Amino acid sequence: MFGFFLYVAIKSYETYSGEKDEVPVAYYNMIKLKHTRSEYLLSSIELPYQQGSNQQLVRAIHKVTLAETFWTVYPPANETDEVPQGKPVECGSVIRLNHATTGKWLHSHKIPGHFGSGYEVTCFDGSDSGDNWLLECNDMWTLGSVFRLKHIDTGFYLAANETSEYPKEEAGEHEIYAAEEDEGNEWQIVGGIFVDENEDQ
């Protein structure tokens, strides 16, 4: 039987710092991702971009309580039968993120970003290599630890544009895009539903 950890409030890393408080992120956990520089959360909404791919819009928002800020961690499509629920995700792994409220995959491709930087990031209802992201972190991927997500196909990093906002007709809030390495691309897990591999005694 799996153990469950539920954090329904967004709290700072300091709340969970210290060895005994480290909560590893595992496959099939549902998580909230915060852009460290802007403190906005990764989100999506069932609305297409008006330009570019016309796929589902991904944005950065400040409303931490919205269900649209939850994402589920998956292995690559060809490994889903091999990776058990609750297995901790190791740094250097390739992962996919599935949007909790629309069921689509966090995706990127070589279509220019909407504010002139990097590449577009979308939610995609198909499944291909554009959904794969390399997890870059130190030691363990845990609640509160800083990490980066490098897109496998383009080599660019998941980033947030905290200075440019989408028009209100495109749901407002800030752009998520794939950026080159020297741009702000660090993230933290700040909440979610966590499952571990420990059996209840």
TrEMBL record:
Keywords: Repeat, Signal
Taxonomic superkingdom: Eukaryota
Matches recorded under PROSITE patterns: MIR
Protein name as it appears in the record: Stromal cell-derived factor 2-like protein
Residue span, MIR domain: 22-76, 86-138, 138-192
